[in-house]
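Methods, example record. To illustrate the input and output format used throughout this study, we show the complete record for RING-type domain-containing protein. The sequence lines were provided to the predictor; the line carrying structure tokens was produced by it.
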Amino acid sequence: MPCTKCRADFNLITWKIKCIDCEQYHCSKCLRKMQGSLFCEKCLILNKRPPDRERLMELRSKDLRDYLNKNKISTHGLVEKAELVELFYRCTIPVRSRRSNKGLSSVFTGSVPNLASQSQDHINNLRTNIESNINNVRSYAENALHNLGSRVGPNLPNHSQHDDSENPQFSSNVQQNSYFYTTFNNSQPTSSSSSHDIPNQQEAPSHETTSASSSPPHKYPKLSDFATAEELNELSVKQLKELLTLNRVDYKGCVEKSELLDRATRLWNDSNQYKNEDLEEASVDNLCKICMDAPLDCVILECGHMATCVNCGKRLAECPICRQYVTRVVRTFKA
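The corresponding predicted structure is encoded as:
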């Protein structure tokens, strides 16, 4: 297994060492020490505080996304590297606590902790907790049965005592059996009534949850939803910005709604023009080099190459021509 960065084989000169953050194996030449721990170059940039924007832009989008997700920061909907870097700056990511050297020192000095005794103490604590919980449940059940019997006992019929007064042992047995029978019969309507009351109590919250869940999710506007360019006038400023952002059209400097509407109208006309054209008769040089099903309508930054359509460009991590990392994709229009 070679080094992750320089792909050099491990030997007596280049040792195999694991990075303390990403846990990938590197040679001793590719690791750097920070705060007494060894990091690879990528983890050194990610764990630097305050972060360096220029160094972060040199990393891959996949590395930034994996680091943010590992720290439980959602990157849903973020495609461009600049957006990931901005999220990296906005969120406060603490530096993870590093492993101390106490474990190694204890090994060399012979003071290894007794793991068996610690595990046995933990098992004993769990056992005592379980036994105390069982005793609490048992006492609660006994008290509940006692309270239920005290409520039902005084209302018992006394006809069995009058009929069998000659045999006191038989009458006591009959009284005991009738007592348990009456207790069981009277406890059934209580449980059934309580079971009928519980759905009534939960009916209102369930209705609220269904009404909340039935609310439709937010729908982003698409160019295919509009038959004519005049229908774009019905959109709000927020919807126009969402439409331009999804199609990678820069609206920086637009203040009025009319300016946003002009760019959205130009976008719709340009897209509709591509639909009316016959792509089979179009030149191969003007088609997307990935899907070959759409025209070239975007430029890849920072390299500036035009090789894909907008839909394919949004999914790229590297330029297919020069293999440079893609920071963002901008829509282009024909003159």
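Annotations derived from this record:
The chain has eleven helices and six strands.
Residues 286 and 296 are 6 Å apart (CA to CA).
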